[in-house]
Amino acid sequence: MKSTLMSFKDNTISFPELIKLKRDGGQLSPAEIGVFVHGVTSRDIQDSQIGAMLMAIWQKGMTDEETVALTREMMNSGETFKWPKEWLVIDKHSTGGVGDKVSLPLAPALAACGCKVPMISGRGLAHTGGTLDKLESICGFKVYQSVEQVKQILEDVGCCIVGQTENLVPADRVLYALRDATSTVDSQPLIISSIISKKGAEGLSALVLDVKFGRAALYKDMDSARRLAQLLINVGNKLGVKTGAVLSRMDSPVGQSVGNAVEVCEALECLKGRGSDDLKELVTTLGGHLLCMCGHSFTIESGKKEIALKLENGEALKKFEAMLVAQGVSADVAHSLCSNETDYFKHMKRAAHQTELEVPDNGAVLDIDGLALAEVLHKLGAGRTKSGEEIDHSVGAEILVKIGQQIQKGESWIRIHHNCPDLSTHYSDLQKVLVIGSRDEYSPASRVAEFIDPDYLNMS
């Protein structure tokens, strides 16, 4: 039977007593948090006890000091990356949304600017898509790389997009799975420690957070997103990572595609200097802030212009092609995908059926409901309900109209990629995605709402 006794400097306390301390609103010391995380990592603590502690944290919260201590202990629970001092090592993290393929063009664009980007990404869950799932749409792409392989790829290419390894922040893997099982996913201290511990283990010079708000985001309003962003910035900076945040709207999908393979296609179009304006806006904004934060650029605007140039002149595309090869894709396939004119589905699975839906009435496109669309695609196989489930990379949607556009009855407004023979049972849900009205009701809004500077705490 696993022991529940944990030794501290001058006394011994049982884990049930530690749970009771937090359950009753007490503050855990850094030493107590350290032993808790060690017990989680070594699996000396029973899952039921870890779950009880997670629920106590969910109910009572944590002070800033507790959250910083938890994040630090999780960050140091396994391997951490060490880089040459002359490297500018930077990354971004998104809180998740619909159609969010920003990482795919952003990482190689930053690498083309001379930075190093060891991007540790995740998989999709529920209605949100995962960067790793998107990249696995490409034949041969390997998301799991050892620490030594990551270092070599950064040396040779400048960027990689990889999954969390067994030895990187192992405490987070255990806690993340149990948070899902205990309905404590939305606990702010647990969200913050999960995000920042992984990014801290990357040994970053700078980190920018894309904190989304809206119908299809974790936080529905900007004030809630801002509070989370400020807490993340606080913890990140206290752990030595210069951290800032962009607040971005997440009502309609990012770009014109949702689904794994179709989002890779759109990301490649962005890397070729084409594609949707809102995707470019997010890529250049996040990249520009990062370049300024790490000292590469003097101003945010000059950083944004440099990212835009790397997308336009093909240098970011060359980095993406090199990253594909470094992570297992054959040179021929990588070159074909990155050539100017290509059939992307020569190298990614195409769904058996493509069905276009028609606009029911004349009018202006006032909204495209990202959450409603993602929920339909989830039912068609594009997403997973629980960790570890298989997904269908070929399922997705291409949105053929843009918000603000005047459209006519009978026009095609969306193309659904699906493998089920009959889509008719989903028609009513899909028609709810498109919101049509009078042009006078249209109110344009930038995808990016606000930037919170790493030094905001010092200025307040």
TrEMBL record:
Xref: SMART domains: PYNP_C (SM00941)
Keyword presence, Glycosyltransferase: yes
Record protein name field: Thymidine phosphorylase
UniProt KW keywords: Glycosyltransferase, Transferase
A Pfam family recorded for this sequence: Glycos_transf_3
Listed GO MF terms: 1,4-alpha-oligoglucan phosphorylase activity; thymidine phosphorylase activity
A single BP term in Gene Ontology: pyrimidine nucleobase metabolic process
Function field: Catalyzes the reversible phosphorolysis of thymidine. The produced molecules are then utilized as carbon and energy sources or in the rescue of pyrimidine bases for nucleotide synthesis.
Gene3D superfamilies, alphabetized: Nucleoside phosphorylase/phosphoribosyltransferase catalytic domain, Pyrimidine nucleoside phosphorylase-like, C-terminal domain, Transferase, Pyrimidine Nucleoside Phosphorylase, Chain C
Subunit record text: Homodimer.
Entries under InterPro entries matching the protein: Glycosyl_Trfase_fam3, Glycosyl_Trfase_fam3_N_dom, Glycosyl_Trfase_fam3_N_dom_sf, Nuc_phospho_transferase, PYNP-like_C_sf, PYNP_C, Pyrmidine_PPas_bac/euk, Pyrmidine_PPase_CS
Similarity-based family: Belongs to the thymidine/pyrimidine-nucleoside phosphorylase family.
Residue span(s) of domain Pyrimidine nucleoside phosphorylase C-terminal: 364-437
Recorded catalytic activity of this chain's protein: thymidine + phosphate = 2-deoxy-alpha-D-ribose 1-phosphate + thymine
Enzyme Commission number(s) from the entry: 2.4.2.4
GO cellular component: cytosol
Species: Cyprinus carpio carpio
Metabolic or biological pathway, per its Swiss-Prot or TrEMBL entry: Pyrimidine metabolism; dTMP biosynthesis via salvage pathway; dTMP from thymine: step 1/2
